[in-house]
Design goal:
The complex is a heterodimer of chains A (400) and B (524).
Chain A lengths: L13 E2 L3 H7 L4 E5 L2 E6 L3 H10 L1 E5 L4 E6 L3 H8 L12 E7 L5 E11 L2 E6 L4 H7 L6 E4 L5 E6 L3 H7 L13 E6 L2 E6 L8 E6 L4 H12 L4 E3 L2 H10 L43 H10 L3 E8 L9 E3 L7 E11 L4 E9 L8 E10 L2 E12 L18
Chain B lengths: L7 E7 L3 H12 L4 E4 L11 E5 L2 E4 L10 H6 L9 E6 L1 E3 L7 E3 L11 H21 L15 H15 L3 H10 L4 H8 L3 H12 L11 H14 L5 E4 L3 H14 L3 E3 L4 E7 L2 E7 L4 E9 L3 H9 L6 H8 L7 E8 L10 H4 L2 E4 L3 H12 L8 E5 L14 E8 L9 H19 L7 E7 L1 H8 L35 E3 L13 H13 L2
Parallel strand pairs in B: 1-2, 1-12, 2-9, 6-14, 12-18
Antiparallel strand pairs in B: 3-4, 5-8, 6-7, 10-11, 11-12, 13-16, 13-17, 14-15, 15-16
Helix pairs in contact in B: 1-9, 1-16, 3-8, 6-7, 7-8, 7-13
Classes of the chains: A alpha+beta (400), B alpha/beta (524).
C-alpha cells in the first residue's frame, strides 16, 4: 500500500522493486500500466524476446500480479465455496489454476491458489478482488489481506530456466513437478519457487521479499548469461500465452463484475474451462446456475482457430459462410505463431460451430499502404493448446 | 440422538409465529404431515400475550388486528377453534396537546373539529386512497410475480397489476403515478389545513417503518398499508379476547385439528442440507428431524445466515441478505395501571379504541430526527391502546393495562439501551400524562420492549416487527431479496413463510398462506 492514503494519487503508477533494473535494460522505452504499476511492454523487440522464451530463458517482472493471503480455520471451506475447483485436493506446497464465478455462474476472474501451509493460502489474480473476496467471507472464519506489495515476483521461463536456477545454486530445483512449490535460498536469501507460468513452456515463478529483489535479479542474470537469459516485456509473453491457449482477462473475457451489457458475461463452460468445475465437491458460488447451464447445453464456446494465410485475425468477426451472411462469433486473441508457423486465434463461437473440425470464416481487414482490403479466410476449429512441448512437464527437465 | 424412522415429515415449519401456524394449518389440511418447531414455551412468536407484571397481561407485539383477511380467518375456522373478539371496528382518535381530541372516521360526512375545507378534502382524499388501495390489494393475495422471466404466470400477474391501475381511469391513474414516489408530508400538505389531521394520517405511513414523514417513498408505504387493509376486507381494527396470543392459540388449534404436530421448547439450531437440498433440521438438543420441505418462519437473516449458513449459498445472494435493512425502530411500552386512565375529552368508545399521539407532521419528523442519529425521540409518536377496557381479564379487577407502540427507538442506540430505556419511558410517560392527567401516578409497573429486546425475546434479527423494512426496494418481487421473493429459496426444499416475505408482517397471515400455496405448487 502507499505510505499515505492521502497522497497516493500524486504517483499514479508505482514502480516495482525491479524497476531500476528494467529501466537500465529498456532499449525502446516502452512501458505500460499494469494493475497500478509501470511495467515493460517491450525491452528490444517483441520477436527477439519471444524467441528467448521458446529457445533460451527469460525473466519477466510479475510483481503487479495481485496477491491475497488467505488464512484461518475456515480457509479451505472458504476457498472451496469461492472457486469452482475442489481445493480440498490441493496438497501443501502445490498450486492450482482456478476460476470463480458470480451467482449466475459467470466468470469474475481466474487465478492461481498456492497452498503455503496447512490452512494458509495465497490467491494470485489479475484484477483486484477484495470486495468480492470479503463478501464471500461472510459466515467463514478466515482472514484475507492483500499482500501484493509485500511479495516481489519474477517469472523465469524457457527451456534453459531450470539449468539457470541450478547454476544459481538452487539445489534440487529440478525435482519440482508442475504446480509444485519449493523453498530455496539464493545467496542466503529465502526464495520460494513454483513451477508455474503463463508461457506453456518449461518455467518457474519466483517469490521473494521486495528488499531482495534486485540481488536476486542480478544473481539470475549472472547465472543465465551463458544460457541466453533475457528480460522480456508483456508483448512477447502475449504471443507465448496465445500459443499455450491461456486466457487473458479483459481480452478473452470480461469479468462479470465489470460488464454492463447483458449477455457479455461468460461462464467457465463457455470459456472451455469446464474441467475446472467440480459439481461433486459441495456448494460453490454459481454452482446451481452452472448446473442449469450444463443441462441446457452451451450456446457458445471459446475455441482455438487455425486460420488460412498469415495475417493475424485481430478482432475479426466470424461467419458460418464465406459470403459473410451469418455471423457466428468473433476473435478475441490472434497472432501468427512463430513456433507453430500457423495463423492462430482464440475466438468465441456460437453453437453448433464450435465443434473441433468445424469451419468458420474470419473477416480480416488488411491495410496495404493505407488501402484497406477485406479478406474472408477459412478458419478451422482446432484443439488447444497450439503449442505444448514435452519439456514443460518433464521432471527433471533436460539439462540444457 | 437416534431418530425414529417414523420421524420423517412432509414439511417442518421452523417457528410457530402466526405465519408459521397459518402455513402449517393450510399444509396439514391437504393431508400432509407437518411438524412445527417453536423455541419458546408458547406459540405465537411476536404475536403472543404474556404477563409483564403480576396479574397484568398484554400482547407483546402488535396489539390490534386489522390486516388478516376475512377469508383466511374463515378458511381456518378460527372462531370454531376458540377465537373470540373483545372488540371489533375500534375507533381511531388523535390525541392533541392543547385541543380536543380529533376523531378519525373516513366514512363520516362531517368531521368534528375540522374546517369545512378540510372536511370536504378529507372525504375526497379518503375515497381516492380507498380506490388506490383497492386497485393494489390484489397484489397481496399471491406470490409476487418475477421480473424478467418468460413464464406466462409472471407475465399475466404483471399485466393484471397494470390493468388494475389502468382501470382506475385516466385521472386516478395519473394521480397514483404522480404521488407514488412522493413523501407523505408533501402529499398531506397539498390536501389539508389541520396539523392534527395531517399528523394522524401521516403517522400511518411511518408506523413500524424506518422513515420520517418527509422520507422519500412514504406515500408508497401508506398506500401499501391501505392496500393491505383493503385486501383484508377493510374490517377495521379489532382486538382478540385474550390478546394477540389468543389468535395464535386458535391458529395452533386449527393446525393441530388438521393434523399438524406442534412442539414448543424445541429450538432449531440449523437446517440440514444434503445433496443441495434442505432435508431436515437439527435442534438445540442435538435431535434431528427430517422432512421433504423445510419452511422457515424466522426472519431472512436468521434463516439464511444462521440456520442455513452462507456456505450453502452464493456470495451475491448472501451479500443481499446481509445488506437487508432490518433494524427495528419501534418500541413497545406496557404499563400496569392501578385504575382506568382518563384521557381528557375522550368519549367512552374512543377510550376503548386506537389512540394516536402524532399531533402534527412536524412532531413525527422531529421524533424521527433523533433516531437518524442513534438517539431516542425526545417527544415520541405513539399508537396507544388500553386493551383491558375491552377485555377485563387482562388485568386484576379495577386495574388496567396500557399498551403503546413508541417511535422512534433505534435498534443500535448510541448511548446504549441501559440509560436510553429510562429516557424513552420518561418521554412517553410525559406525553401520556399530558393526554391523561394523573396517569403517571397510577403506574404500578412499566415495561419497555426495545428492538434489541424484541431481537432477544422473539429471535428476530434486528428486532423489526416486519422482519425487514417495508420500503420500495424491499417489497413485492424484491422482498426480502431477489432469489427468495417467491417463498422458495436458492436451496431446493427450503422455503420462507415469515414477515420478511411479501407482503410483510403486522399479523396478516398472508405470507404464511402464500408460502403454503407455493409449497403445494412446487413440491407436489
Amino acid at each position: 500500500m502507499s505510505e499515505s492514503p492521502a497522497t497516493h494519487f500524486t504517483q499514479p503508477l508505482q514502480k516495482t522493486p525491479f524497476h531500476e533494473r528494467a529501466r537500465a535494460l529498456s532499449q525502446v522505452d516502452s512501458f505500460i500500466a499494469w494493475a497500478g504499476y509501470t511495467t515493460v511492454d517491450v525491452f528490444t523487440t517483441a520477436e527477439q524476446e519471444y524467441f528467448a522464451i521458446r529457445n533460451a530463458c527469460t525473466l519477466y517482472d510479475l510483481t503487479p500480479m495481485v496477491k491475497y493471503r488467505i488464512a484461518g480455520r475456515d480457509a479451505l471451506a472458504y476457498l472451496n465455496r469461492l472457486v469452482t475447483r475442489d481445493v480440498a485436493k490441493l496438497k501443501p506446497d502445490r498450486v492450482a489454476y482456478c476460476v470463480w464465478c458470480n451467482d449466475a455462474g459467470h466468470l469474475i476472474d481466474d487465478g492461481t491458489i498456492f497452498r503455503l501451509g496447512e490452512s494458509q493460502y495465497r490467491l494470485c489474480t489479475a484484477e483486484r478482488q477484495i470486495d468480492w473476496l470479503l463478501d464471500s467471507s461472510i459466515g467463514f472464519d478466515v482472514e484475507i489481506s492483500e499482500v501484493t506489495e509485500q511479495v516481489a515476483a519474477l517469472s523465469l521461463q524457457g527451456p534453459t530456466s531450470c539449468a539457470v536456477l541450478k547454476a544459481a545454486g538452487l539445489q534440487g530445483v529440478e525435482k519440482l513437478r508442475m504446480f509444485e512449490i519449493g523453498h530455496f535460498a539464493l545467496q542466503g536469501r529465502a526464495l520460494t519457487v513454483s513451477r508455474t507460468g503463463f508461457t506453456g513452456d518449461l518455467g518457474y515463478e519466483l517469490w521473494m521479499e521486495p528488499e531482495q529483489a534486485e540481488e536476486i535479479w542480478d544473481a539470475l542474470m549472472a547465472a543465465g548469461r551463458s544460457r541466453g537469459i533475457r528480460a522480456i516485456g508483456s508483448q512477447a509473453l502475449n504471443i507465448a500465452r496465445i500459443e499455450a491457449g491461456f486466457l487473458s482477462p479483459n481480452v478473452d473475457f470480461v469479468s462479470a463484475e465489470h460488464t454492463i451489457r447483458t449477455g457479455r458475461d461468460r461462464s467457465p463452460l463457455e470459456l472451455g474451462l469446464g474441467w475446472l468445475v467440480d459439481f461433486e465437491k459441495g456448494h460453490f458460488t454459481g454452482r446451481r446456475a452452472l448446473k442449469n447451464e450444463l443441462q441446457r447445453g452451451p450456446r457458445r464456446r471459446l475455441v482455438g482457430l487455425d486460420i488460412a494465410g498469415n495475417k493475424p485475425a485481430h478482432n475479426a468477426l466470424l461467419y458460418a459462410d464465406e459470403r459473410g451472411r451469418r455471423e457466428v462469433g468473433s476473435v478475441s486473441s490472434a497472432v501468427w505463431s512463430p513456433t507453430c508457423k500457423r495463423n492462430i486465434a482464440l475466438a468465441m463461437v456460437d453453437a453448433p460451430h464450435f465443434k473441433i473440425g468445424a469451419t468458420v470464416w474470419a473477416e480480416i481487414y488488411l491495410s496495404r499502404e493505407l488501402v484497406w482490403e477485406r479478406r474472408m479466410s477459412r478458419a478451422l476449429v482446432v484443439e488447444r493448446p497450439f503449442f505444448a512441448p514435452e519439456r514443460r512437464r518433464a521432471t527433471p527437465p533436460a539439462d540444457t | 440422538m437416534a431418530t425414529p424412522a417414523s420421524a420423517r415429515y412432509d414439511s417442518i415449519v421452523i417457528g410457530a409465529g402466526h405465519n408459521g401456524l397459518v402455513c402449517a394449518a393450510l399444509l396439514a389440511r391437504t393431508g400432509r404431515s407437518v411438524l412445527v418447531l417453536e423455541a419458546s414455551a408458547q406459540v405465537g412468536g411476536a404475536a403472543v400475550t404474556r404477563e409483564f407484571a403480576p396479574g397484568f397481561r398484554v400482547s407483546a407485539g402488535a396489539h390490534l388486528l386489522h390486516l388478516m383477511p376475512a377469508d383466511l380467518k374463515g378458511e381456518l375456522k378460527l372462531e370454531a377453534h376458540g377465537l373470540e373478539w373483545a372488540a371489533q371496528r375500534l375507533e381511531t382518535t388523535a390525541l392533541l396537546a392543547d385541543a380536543p381530541p380529533l376523531k378519525l372516521d373516513q366514512g363520516a360526512a362531517a368531521q368534528t373539529g375540522l374546517s369545512a375545507a378540510d372536511t370536504q378534502a378529507y372525504a375526497k382524499y379518503s375515497a381516492r386512497m380507498r380506490r388506490f388501495a383497492a386497485a393494489l390489494a390484489p397484489l397481496f393475495a399471491r406470490p409476487p410475480p418475477r421480473l424478467g422471466t418468460t413464464a406466462w404466470g409472471d407475465r399475466l400477474a404483471l399485466l393484471s397489476i397494470g390493468w388494475q391501475i389502468r382501470r382506475l381511469g385516466r385521472r386516478d391513474m395519473r394521480e397514483l403515478l404522480r404521488i407514488g414516489g412522493m413523501n407523505v408530508y408533501d402529499l398531506l400538505q397539498e390536501h389539508f389545513e389541520s396539523a392534527a389531521l395531517k399528523g394522524a394520517l401521516g403517522f400511518d405511513a411511518v408506523l413500524g417503518a424506518n422513515f420520517g414523514v418527509r422520507s422519500p417513498g412514504t406515500v408508497l408505504t401508506l398506500l401499501y398499508r391501505l392496500a393491505a387493509e383493503s385486501a383484508a376486507g377493510n374490517a377495521g381494527f379489532s382486538q382478540p379476547r385474550g390478546g394477540m396470543g389468543a389468535l395464535c392459540n386458535a391458529l395452533a388449534q386449527a393446525a393441530q385439528a388438521a393434523g399438524a404436530v406442534i412442539r414448543t421448547g424445541a429450538k432449531v439450531n440449523g437446517i440440514l442440507v444434503e445433496d443441495d437440498r434442505a432435508g431436515g433440521v437439527v435442534l438445540e438438543s442435538g435431535e434431528r428431524a427430517f422432512a421433504r420441505n423445510v419452511i422457515s418462519n424466522a426472519d431472512p437473516k436468521t434463516t439464511f445466515l444462521e440456520l442455513l449458513g452462507a456456505r450453502h449459498l452464493d456470495t451475491g445472494f448472501v451479500r443481499r441478505v446481509k445488506h437487508l435493512r432490518a433494524r427495528g425502530l419501534a418500541a413497545k411500552l406496557h404499563l400496569a395501571l392501578n385504575r382506568a386512565p382518563r384521557f381528557t375529552g375522550l368519549t367512552e368508545s374512543a377510550q376503548r379504541g386506537r389512540l394516536l399521539v402524532a399531533p402534527s407532521l412536524e412532531h413525527i419528523e422531529r421524533a424521527y430526527n433523533h433516531a437518524k442519529y442513534g438517539e431516542v425521540s425526545a417527544a415520541p409518536a405513539m399508537e396507544v391502546t388500553v386493551p383491558s377496557m375491552n377485555d377485563s381479564a387482562l388485568a386484576p379487577p379495577g386495574q388496567h393495562v396500557l399498551s403503546a407502540i413508541v417511535q422512534y427507538a433505534p435498534y443500535a442506540l448510541k448511548e446504549g439501551w441501559e440509560s436510553g430505556r429510562q429516557r424513552l419511558v420518561g418521554a412517553a410517560l410525559e406525553t401520556l400524562e399530558r393526554a391523561a392527567p394523573g396517569l403517571r401516578d397510577s403506574v404500578i409497573a412499566a415495561e419497555l420492549l426495545t428492538p434489541a429486546d424484541m431481537e432477544q425475546e422473539f429471535r428476530i434479527s434486528g428486532g423489526h416487527w416486519h422482519h425487514v423494512d417495508l420500503a420500495f426496494d424491499q417489497i413485492l418481487m424484491v422482498r426480502p431479496v431477489p432469489g427468495a421473493a417467491q417463498y422458495s429459496t436458492p436451496v431446493d426444499g427450503l422455503y420462507l413463510c415469515g414477515a420478511g416475505c411479501h407482503p410483510g408482517g403486522g399479523v396478516m397471515g398472508v405470507a404464511g398462506r402464500n408460502a403454503a400455496l407455493q409449497v403445494l405448487r412446487t413440491s407436489p
